[in-house]
Each structure stands twice: as structure tokens, then as C-alpha cells.
Amino acid sequence: MKSSSIHIGLLGCGTVGAALVHLLTEQRDSVKHRTGLDLSIEAIVVNDINKERSIPLPNEVLTTDASSVIGNPEINLIVEVMGGIEPARELILGALNSGQPVVTANKELLAQHGAELYAAAEKSGVDLLFEAAVAGGIPVVRPLRESLSGEPITRIRGIINGTTNFILTRMTQDGVSFDEALLEAQELGYAELDSTYDVEGYDAGAKIAILATLAFGADVTSEDVQHEGISGITVEDIKFADRLGHCIKLVAVAEQIINQEGKSEIGVRVYPALIPFDHPLAAVNGSFNAVFVEGDAVGELMFYGPGAGGRPTASAVFGDVIDASGNLQRSHGSLIGALDRPLICPPESFESSFYLNLKVEDQPGVLARVAEVFENHGVSIQSMEQEGMASEARLTFITHSVHEKDLLHTLESLKSLDVVSNVDSVLRVVGD
Ligand code: NAP
Ligand code: HSE
Question: Is 341 among the domain residues?
């Protein structure tokens, strides 16, 4: 097979970048043998060239000067794994505009500026590939872009943040504290530089926006996502959920809903939810992710695997590098197509079953007064538990599926009851 040299400019050499250098070095001969592509990293752009690296790198390859690779005709392909919005956005646009294909793992950037970047790739006729931006090592972006491009997708639901899933798993299975579990996730290379991005649901929000864009062919951005994180989840919530036959996970959902005027709206949400032990998502533990795709024709598909960490993510980046390099030889790229702004569902239009955890006075008649509030708002209770404490009692409820606006009104009324001292937790419960 005739071999073609592909010179890569790598932007960033942290957790993912270093793992990519390692994987490429390991697999270079095998890829050359199978595909005829001789891949080499010619330059690596970092913040600090004197920093100690986890892999040996020749000094001459490291630089802080991104302009030496962007638009350089000797560099055939750019891989961006530095993260953040700027300068990543400007560098990727510069590369695409000068005809260099780009592979990126940057979900934050794609979820904010995807439409601009996809349009630039389309205009130049080069690839912008981003398998690693969603669900780490799991191939889900390419199936959505290619295999499922004709599928009328109705809903995507899953666990798409490895850090929060790792934290919740450690808290649930090993009784480890939130802070300790977060530290472990950081040490294992799962967390973002600013871990608030993971913990408060922004990372999962960016990923579900990208998946919604691909699934529904619309320009869905991170601003369209309603998100809640896991920083309010306590060990107590986890224990109560367990007693009620559930675990707690951070769930992301994108769905297409027909509103009362018959128009199609898109809902994109991230929230911590109770999941029944027998639901497939309950078995997704540690830094693993799972994505369910539901379509009218195909039915339900599940994608499962490692959702974070250097090597799994580098595997997804590497696949894109080989794909984009092959496309360079064939002179065609893979396109996203036209994206219009969608109608986004207002928050109150959703329905869900809920878990509520209230602290109340321990007196006769309290339960009846609380139950009356639920009844007045048409919220039906599926199960309830009472636990005595020193001078108070704790009531936990799981409701049947209700309109979120009815649940919000119920909460307001509960908070105004003199016998309710606090509403400690309100979480959604995942159903079918
Ligand atoms: P990281 O460990 O923080 O590495 C970032 C790298 O980029 C570092 O080498 C840093 O240089 C370099 N860098 C940052 N800003 C720069 C700038 N302005 N100019 C030049 N170099 C710059 O991050 P990571 O975990 O590898 O993540 C990289 C990207 O992959 C992010 O977009 C992240 O969201 C995404 N991602 C990560 C994972 C994961 O599991 N970690 C999974 C999927 C996607 P220095 O080394 O000199 O500081
Ligand atoms: N911080 C991200 C996570 C990395 O924990 O899922 C993978 O995108």
C-alpha cells in the first residue's frame, strides 16, 4: 500500500493530549500497515514548555506559539485538546479557514459556538470531528452523524459525565465523602480543570446540547439546557433512595415534544434523579457513561463504556485523526448540514415522578396536613416513609408522574405550612 505522511499539530498535552501521544506512538506502525497513513506529531502547543510531562517528548516538538502550526502548510491536521473557549475557538477557526481539518474533544466550545465552527468547516470543505467531546471513549457522535442520520430520533437519555457518576458511585457503594470522591476523580484525570463545570451539570449540559444538535438537526446550545448539579446531594438522600429501591445519578435528557399548538419543541435538561435498581442506567457505575437513543424506526439503542479519562478519550480522538487523515487523501469531509434555531420547551411543560424529603414537626395530624397539600394540587403519592428524629420527623415521598408546575405549586404550599420546618431534597425519579 502506498503510504501518505500526515503531519499533526497538537494543541494541548495534558490528560488527553499526553494519552494521545502515547497511543499514536504505540499504534503508528500498525495504522500505517492497515491504512497506509503515516501519522506523526510534528508540534505540540502548551502553556509551559518547562512543565514536567508524563511522557518523554523531544524538546524541539514543544512550543507555546500556536501560530507556528495554525495555517502552516507543513501541518496537515490540527488536534485541539487544550480546552476552554479562547484561544481554542480562534485557533480552530484559523485552522479550518486555512483548510486544515480539525479534531477536537472540546464540548464546552462546541456547545457554545458549534454552529459557527461547523459552518467554517463546511465552507472550507474540511473535517471538524469531535467523537471525544461526548461520553469519552464511547462511539456515539459518529453513529448519530452517520448511521442514524435518517432516523427520526425522539429522545436521548443517559449518564454523560464521568466525574459526577464516579463521585455518586463512591458515595453510594463505599461511603466516601463528596470531597474525597471529587479529589479522586481529579487525580484519575476525569474532572475538568474547573471541577464546578462537572459537579454543577455544565459539562453534561454541553454534551447533551451537542447530542441534541446532531439528533434533531437544530442549533441547540448550552444556553438552551436547564441544568442542576449534584452538589446538593447528601449521603442521607442516597440512603433514603436506597431504602426506596433506587440509586441517584446525574441524568441528561434531550427530547422532541409536540406542544399544544402542534409545533415541535426541543427539551434539553440535566438533573440528578432517582433511578430504580432494575433500570439499566442503575448499573452504570464509576466513570462509565451510557447513552440511550430512541427512534421511531430503530427503537431503543444503548451505547455504554468509559466516559472519561486520558486513554479512553484519546482512543476516540485517535479514531477521528485516522478518519480525517483518510478523508484528506480522498479529498472529502464529513458535514453536519444546515442547522436552524429550534423552539425550546419551557421548563413547566415537563412531567416527572418526584422524590421529596421533608423535615416536619413530630405531632399528631402533621401527616394528614401534608397529605392534604399534595391532594389540593392533584399530586398523587406513590410511596411514603416516616422516620422519627430527636424532636422532629422526616417524611420522604415518591409521587406518581405529575406536571412540574403542579409539583412547584405543591412545594410552595408545603414550605408555607407551619409544621414543615424544611424541604431538604426534591429530585426527579426516572421512569420508562
Ligand atoms: P488538561 O489536562 O488540563 O490539559 C490541557 C492542556 O492544554 C495542557 O497541556 C495545557 O498546557 C494546554 N493549554 C491549555 N490552555 C492553553 C493555552 N491557552 N495555550 C497553550 N496550551 C494550553 O485537560 P484535559 O483533561 O486533557 O482536557 C482537554 C480537553 O479534552 C478539554 O476540552 C476537555 O473538556 C476534553 N475532554 C477531557 C476528557 C478527560 O477525561 N480528561 C474527556 C473528554 C474530553 P500545560 O500542560 O503547559 O499546562
Ligand atoms: N470531565 C468530563 C467527565 C470528562 O467527567 O465526564 C469527559 O468528557
Answer: no
